[in-house]
UniProtKB/TrEMBL annotation:
Mg(2+) binds at D124. This is ATP-dependent 6-phosphofructokinase. GO terms for molecular function: 6-phosphofructokinase activity; AMP binding; ATP binding; fructose-6-phosphate binding; identical protein binding; metal ion binding; monosaccharide binding. Beta-D-fructose 2,6-bisphosphate binds at residues 474, 531-535, 577, 584-586, 624, 650, 656-659, 730. Residues 405-775 are annotated as: C-terminal regulatory PFK domain 2. It is found in: Cytoplasm. The keyword Nucleotide-binding applies. Allosterically activated by ADP, AMP, or fructose 2,6-bisphosphate, and allosterically inhibited by ATP or citrate.
Length: 775
């Protein structure tokens, strides 16, 4: 995407009034978890700015039929909607809207309600229909005028129709966005099934073939294969080579020979071979049984993938997109094209709707023409990165021995996804020709010599394991510098990959500073941020934070407990109950603030935004160090006393359950990809710093942190990040997620100021076709 020019001056949304405007919101096509969160955000943001907002029930069918299908929404009508799956305003396929007569009826129904702003939540077919409706709008109004159904004043008053789309699709098949609403939740359903099947498959040494959705797009199959460490994956954009049957059987038999007790094969429902012939789950089962004699079963997940409560990621994504959609409608002019609100990296963008639709259609055209590499490229950077990582981890093609030894260790508190990162690092490192060494118990174990070589098979099954299988300690290296240096010499360690939270950042910084005194530390050093608190400088997101957010908003399947959704159900039963929920995070309010956004909290108290007794007039979530005096216990006691005879008060301290459990699909995938990228950086840096028979790396850019910043993964020298860090409170001096705080407040009906100068701007989809290879 071509980035827009931005002005430094701040712009506040208070200058964008919705007074006199009416917004219609509809969901169309297949349902997806998170659609309700998007509807809720559109309704509440629209009402907040003074606009009228209307539900259009049953999608385009409701627009054509009119009547009670078009209903004005209120603030309360979207309460308790955020955690509900599917779409509560309904969705339906509508043949009538495909006809001119049907669209004339739809236009009349909108004009009768004064709706000239439409927010459409659906897939590419729904959004294409919306764009056609907009293009025909003037002629539709003229038809209504000439038939006497509306007058000239109505034509003038409703002369322009503005369209903003949000993509709701579990398949993630829309070009221009890294993630569509519903995809992450569908991955949760798939991984829950895979994890459950894994236990029975191991018991009986079975092979399972799982069919997932994805008739035209293999994203669910590809990412779920990465997230569960599947043995093989089939999806339409990249069919297997012609000899795939032999290769598959060879790999499965090899895994059994290595004493692996289960095999998982993921198949997208639209999987094909290179002749465009379908590859079905039953065909694969028959192949494995016939050639290998393995006990093989097929599981077709079907509509289970659409069901259930939305994940934390989808709730947050839907809320962000819904607010952004209203801002786009408020800012639209008569010449603004219909746009779609998208997510690129961690940043919201607005893209011309039809440019995205056309690119999506080009993918299918490329597949029809058997230009599969082109199809993958058109899917976008996120899809390409996933495929690249999968190939790195599954090829088993090992380069010649490099002669380099790389140590990997965990530091700080455990975080879900650490083991996925270690597995990825070990396997990519081995594939690059390195010897990989595992260090147990962080730098404390390093000093004690708890170091051993780790092989490819040693990390099998690690992806879905929670906690830290290597063991982790908070010990910093400075006080053990001599012993650590000695162990580096003994094991000839040439590079280190440190995976952990704020302590890991401090460790790498200390090693960098110790280079002046110990030449052993003059090796490439790379840190991967992994902590539930998301408090590490140099990155927007850390491994483990997504799993923790899901623990906050849903029932932890592995341990106990009532958390926000169950708590809200309990509270809604009496209508007179207030819950105080404490999250972890130390002085970083990320979990409290973003968890509050995902759970629909009424208030969130955090350290970064000082508050006083007046702020406690509203219930909500504090994080553990939000205020040294206004603690969770104090707030609970205050509400209990003041609420006597009016409401009951309950307290829930989530504690270490936020660190436990299996990692979410996002954290498995994120940890896997960033570790693979880190190992490739280590390989490059080792080659660059190897001179005269030894590795010597002492520059700032040889000790780096790899993090996600806005749209890209970026390596930043830890020495540079030192200036951006508040070491007293163990947080970055600037935290991107604080920009989401006004959004949370607006959706909870606060009066607040919202800086929209950094909001999405209209960009264009750009893709350059690769040059033909030279002959």
């Amino acid at each position: 995407m071509a980035a827009p020019n931005r002005q430094d001056t701040k712009k506040f949304f208070e200058n964008l009034s919705g007074a006199g405007k009416s917004i219609g919101v509809l969901t169309s096509g297949g349902d997806a978890q998170g659609m309700n969160g998007a509807v809720r955000a559109v309704v509440r943001m629209g009402i907040y700015v003074g606009a009228k907002v209307y539900f259009i029930h049953e999608g385009y069918q409701g627009m054509v039929d009119g009547g009670q299908n078009i209903e004005e929404a209120t603030w309360e009508s979207v309460s308790s909607m955020l955690q509900v799956g599917g779409t509560v305003i309904g969705s339906a396929r509508c043949k009538e809207f495909r006809t001119l007569e049907g669209r004339v009826r739809a236009a009349l129904n909108l004009v009768q309600h004064g709706i000239t702003n439409l927010c459409v939540i659906g897939g590419d077919g729904s959004l294409t229909g919306a764009n056609l409706f907009r293009e025909e709008w003037s002629s539709l109004l003229e038809t209504l005028r000439t038939t006497g159904q509306i007058d000239d004043e109505a034509v003038q008053r409703n002369s322009v129709l503005h369209i903003v789309g949000m993509v709701g699709s579990i398949d993630n098949d829309f070009c221009g966005t890294d993630m569509t609403i519903g995809t992450d939740s569908a991955l949760h359903r798939i991984i829950e099934v895979v994890d459950a099947i894994g236990t029975t498959a191991q018991s009986h040494q079975r092979t399972f073939v799982l069919e997932v959705m994805g008739r035209h797009c293999g994203y669910l199959a590809l990412v779920s294969a990465l997230a569960c460490g599947a043995d093989w994956v089939f999806f339409p954009e990249m069919p297997p080579e012609d000899d795939w049957e032999e290769e598959l059987c060879y790999k499965l038999s090899g895994n059994r020979a290595d004493k692996k007790r289960l095999n998982i094969i993921i198949v997208a429902e639209g999987a094909i071979d290179r002749s465009n012939k379908p590859i079905s789950a039953d065909y694969i089962k028959d192949l494995v049984v016939r050639r290998l004699g393995f006990d093989t079963r097929v599981t077709i997940l079907g509509h289970v993938q659409r069901g259930g409560t939305p994940s934390a990621f989808d709730r947050i994504l839907a809320s962000r997109m819904g607010v952004e959609a209203v801002l786009a409608l408020l800012e639209a002019s008569a010449t603004t094209p219909a746009c779609v609100v998208s997510l690129v990296g961690n940043q919201s963008v607005r893209l011309p709707l039809m440019e995205c639709v056309q690119m999506t259609q080009e993918v299918q055209k490329a597949m029809d023409e058997k230009k599969f590499d082109e199809a993958v490229r058109l899917r976008g950077r996120s899809f390409e990165n996933n495929l690249h990582t999968y190939r790195l981890l599954c090829s088993r093609v090992v380069l010649p021995q490099s002669g380099f030894n790389v140590a990997v260790l965990n530091v700080g508190a455990p975080a879900a996804g650490m083991n996925a990162a270690v597995r990825s690092a070990v396997r990519v490192g081995i594939a690059e020709g390195h010897k990989m060494f595992a260090v147990n118990d962080g730098f404390e174990g390093f000093a004690k010599g708890q170091i051993k070589e780790i092989k490819w098979g040693d990390v099998g099954g690690w992806t879905g394991q929670g906690g830290s299988l290597l063991g982790t300690k908070r010990t910093l290296p400075a006080k053990h510098a001599e012993k650590i240096a000695e162990q580096i010499r003994i094991h000839n360690i040439n590079a280190m990959l440190v995976i952990g939270g704020f302590e890991a950042f401090e460790c790498v910084l200390e090693l960098y500073e110790l280079r002046a005194h110990h030449v052993e530390f003059c090796v490439p050093l790379c840190m991967l941020p992994a902590t539930i608190s998301n408090n590490v400088p140099g990155t927007d997101l850390t491994i483990g934070a997504d799993t923790s957010l899901n623990a906050i908003v849903e029932v932890d399947l592995y341990k106990f407990l009532c958390t926000c959704d169950r708590i809200k159900q309990s509270a809604s039963g009496t209508k007179r109950r207030v819950f105080i929920i404490e999250t972890m995070g130390g002085y970083c309010g990320y979990l409290a603030n973003v968890g509050g956004l995902a759970a629909g909290a009424d208030a969130v108290y955090i350290y970064e935004e000082p508050f006083d007794i007046r702020e406690l007039q509203v219930r909500g979530h504090p994080n553990e160090n939000s205020n040294e005096n206004f603690t969770t216990d104090f707030i609970y006691q205050l509400y209990s006393e003041e609420g006597k005879g009016v409401f009951d008060c309950r307290k829930n301290v989530l504690g270490h359950m936020q660190q436990g459990g299996a990692p979410s699909p996002f954290d498995r995938n994120f940890g896997t990809k960033v570790a693979a990228k880190a190992m490739q950086w280590i390989t490059t840096t080792l080659k660059e710093t190897y001179k005269e028979g030894r590795v010597f790396a002492n520059t700032d850019d040889s000790a780096c942190l790899l993090g996600m910043r806005r749209r890209a993964m970026v390596f930043r020298p830890v020495a540079e990040l030192r200036e951006e860090t508040d070491f007293v409170h163990r947080i970055p001096k600037e935290q991107w997620w604080l920009k989401l705080r006004p959004l949370m407040k607006i959706l909870a009906k606060y009066r607040t100021s919202f800086d929209v100068s950094d909001s999405a701007q209209l960009e264009h989809v750009t893709h350059v076709r690769p040059k033909e290879a030279a002959i």
